[in-house]
Amino acid sequence: MPLYEFGVGDVFYNTIKAHPSSSFFIYDSKIYLNNRSTQAGANVSSVPNVPAGYVNLFELNIDRIVNSDLTAVIGPSSSVSSSQNVPDTGFIYPFVQKGLQKTAFKNITRQQFIHNYNNGDIITGSYKLSASITRQLYLTSADLTSGFFGSNHTGSALKNSLNYATRLGQHYSFPNKATDIVNLIDIPSIFYGSEIKKGSVELNFYITGTLAGRLTDKYYNGALIQESGTYSTSNDNSIAGVVLYNEGIIILTGSWDLDSGPTLNDKDYLDTSVNTNPRWVRFAMGAQDNVDTGSSLTNGSASYEIKFAGTHKIPNITMLTNANRGELNYTNNPTYIEYNQTASYYPITGGNFYKENELNIKNIHSSSYTDPTGSLKKTTFITKVGIYDENKKLIGVASLAKPVKKTEDRDLTIKIKMDF
């Protein structure tokens, strides 16, 4: 088998930037991702084993049912302790055994590893993980400990990001940081990649199915500007919030009424109920914020939509493999030589000599006549290209969609592309 080394200009490294879009619709304390509802499976009510509006982080445990036998184990049971058994829960999950390697999962602290597990114990993890958007409301409060920028709260963690983003405009600066009503929506990075694409954010507020207001970042600077309001147009072109593109955070502060009714029963992070007219600071009620909109008929008439596009940077490598003229025209495939030849395939050997039998190559070159055939042209068909590292270890195989004919007078270049 011939081996060739990539030459100068045969390998290219690139980064592909993709912008997949996502859409969340919130209604009656339920989240719908990309307009998909729950898909029932053969064993569970939801095929991915996560609720509607969530994404399965590992896409494992699809349509699997839990094993009700709590004593079931994988493999033989340990005669020392049940803690050294691998439980058969019915789901796929990672596990490691505490031993000399000192291997554990990242969420296990050093103290837990030392004191909570004995040598030989099985430490288990979980692949049944999911992600979706969350919402948090911070009500007006003069007390710095309970406001958005209070100690150990989200505002304090985002303070540096907000201050840094003021280079895009002063709309990122909150003048009354302790007293502003803040509605925060957190989007996990699995939905947008490295950052949210600028100019792609759109928020729609519906009352009884009618659009009451829309926010967009049409100036690509993170300012969410109201484009249309059916109740009152006086606040059109007003800034109702901001977007932190890198952090996936939407902060809404618009407190003007979008409709005269219905009255929305909202709650802040301290579980304090508030009745108010539809406003941007009440946007996305029911998105994992412990607000049961189904408990009030008036809340059920409001629905919300969040649209945006992410930015995913995909490393890409392009490799050009060359099959030069006069090369790669022999193969070990048995069909390469004529069938039913009297000479043996095996060489003749003795104490002092080694001789290979001469076998005729099958001529597949076309001719206008059945006999004689055309002149012999060594012909092969390339079906796969193997990629090797510097130690000549196979690290990848590229399969062609259709075999490519290779003759002695033909130069071929096969382009291989791989995403990481």
Overview of this protein structure:
The structure is a single chain. This protein is 4% helix and 33% strand. The protein has 420 residues and is mainly beta. It folds into three domains: 58-128, no CATH class; 134-314, no CATH class; 317-419, no CATH class. Strands 1, 2, 3, 8, 9, 10, 11, 12, 13, 14, 15, 18 and 23 form a 13-stranded antiparallel beta sheet that branches. A two-stranded antiparallel ribbon has the order 4-7. Strand 14 (239-244) and strand 15 (249-252) form a beta hairpin. The two termini are 28 Å apart. The relative contact order is 0.14. The model has no long low-confidence stretch (mean pLDDT 84).
Mean of pLDDT: 84
Whole-number count of domains: 3
Secondary structural class:
mainly beta
Q: What general outline do the C-alpha atoms trace?
A: elongated
DSSP summary: helix tally: 2
Low-confidence stretches: none
Helical coverage, percent range: under 10%
Strand content: 25-35%
Key words describing this protein structure:
single chain; 420 residues; mainly beta; 3 domains; 13-stranded antiparallel β-sheet; 2 helices
Write the layout of secondary structure elements.
Layout: E1 11-18, E2 21-27, E3 30-33, E4 55-56, E5 95-97, H1 110-115, E6 122-124, E7 130-131, E8 134-138, H2 154-165, E9 182-186, E10 195-196, E11 202-207, E12 210-216, E13 223-229, E14 239-244, E15 249-252, E16 264-267, E17 273-276, E18 302-323, E19 348-349, E20 354-355, E21 379-388, E22 394-407, E23 412-419
Antiparallel strand pairs: 1-18, 2-3, 2-18, 4-7, 5-6, 8-9, 9-15, 10-18, 11-12, 11-18, 12-13, 13-14, 14-15, 16-17, 18-23, 19-20, 21-22
